[in-house]
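For practice. Any example?
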Amino acid sequence: MRSAGDLIGISTRKRAEHGFDVERIRRDFPILHQSVFGKPLVYLDNAATTHKPRIVIETVSRFYERDNSNIHRGLHQLSERSTKAYEGARVKVQKFINAAEPREIIFVRGTTEAINLVARTYGRKQVDAGDEVLITEMEHHSNIVPWQMLCEEKNAILRVGPINDRGELLLEEFEKLMGPRTKLVAVVHLSNALGTINPVRRIVEMAHSRGIPVLIDGAQAVAHLTVDVRALGCDFYAFSGHKIYGPTGIGVLYGKAELLEEMPPYQGGGDMISSVTFEKTIYNKLPHKFEAGTPNIADAIGLGAAIGYLTGVGLDAVSAYESELLAHATETIGAIEGIRLIGTARKKASVLSFLIDGIHPHDIGTILDKEGIAIRAGHHCTQPLMKRFGVPATARATVSFYNTREEIDALAAGIRKVKKVFA
């Protein structure tokens, strides 16, 4: 007899299968319609970067064809149009993550720069010798190295919260590491190597009860989960455009206005100033204080188009469909003899990391590539996490809302061919 949970799962799968037109979605992504080594492309490397819908490609192209001009300072029509589109993209981001004001949205190159910005401004100002920064074992290098650099500079301490064998954060142990010297908690929302969805709202509550601010690395989460920074209560949230169907080289740092106001600039130069003399510089207001020089105008506008596209599809529908795909992949791939899944958290999304007994992940990736199947093989910029699981690397397939059940089945067939080759 099926449980209520089973029935809910079946209902969700049916809605995903019959209420989501994946073929219509796929028509919007030109790059998907090609062959690799004579085989139809099966792209399952979405955690590394996502493909771009036609509207994003056309938006960026149209900017360069019609509006290309520097922003904020020009009085002519092209500059005014460029400025309006650029600041319009900021408003789209603000509404997408439900920030209180557009000035809380800082355009950066990506998640990596966003975290470095916080480490080099807020961190340098707040962290002293003997203070602590708290992260987890599942962090991407981008949410480890900047804090290591800060701790080395300040003679501070980097604390690391442990995870269990399923890849879930041990929340009670994590909370015990929050002490009177903890000056910041920095935690990933959705693990790029495990797929684990961390209980970030609860983490924020625990930290804030002790007066500790929280930064969330949302690089993977924003394309798969509805993100509401005010509901989460986080102080900083970072993500990259290219992982949410937007261009490369553009990303976002959300920060609470009162914190951003108190932080010194990250870089000096044009547009981040109000006035300059040889004796003193007065900095510009938010958000411009943190956007020195000519920004990545075209790709910010492209990110706005990507957010508009994803919002039009609907994140609830995306999440439901991707959950069905991941469940199918977990069941299908997990049933193959010799497969070991890495990351089996009860709450997870998008990511299926695995090993095949006796076969190096790089060999898996190479053979699958010859079958037209693109996955990722390596440590996924999470070397400490690989060490935690006692492996040098994993093979990682990551799904998007433009993937299909047939592509998952093709991956399973490819894995069986890998095993046959090495038999």
Q: What stands out?
A: Residues 201 and 232 are 5 Å apart (CA to CA). The mean pLDDT is 94.
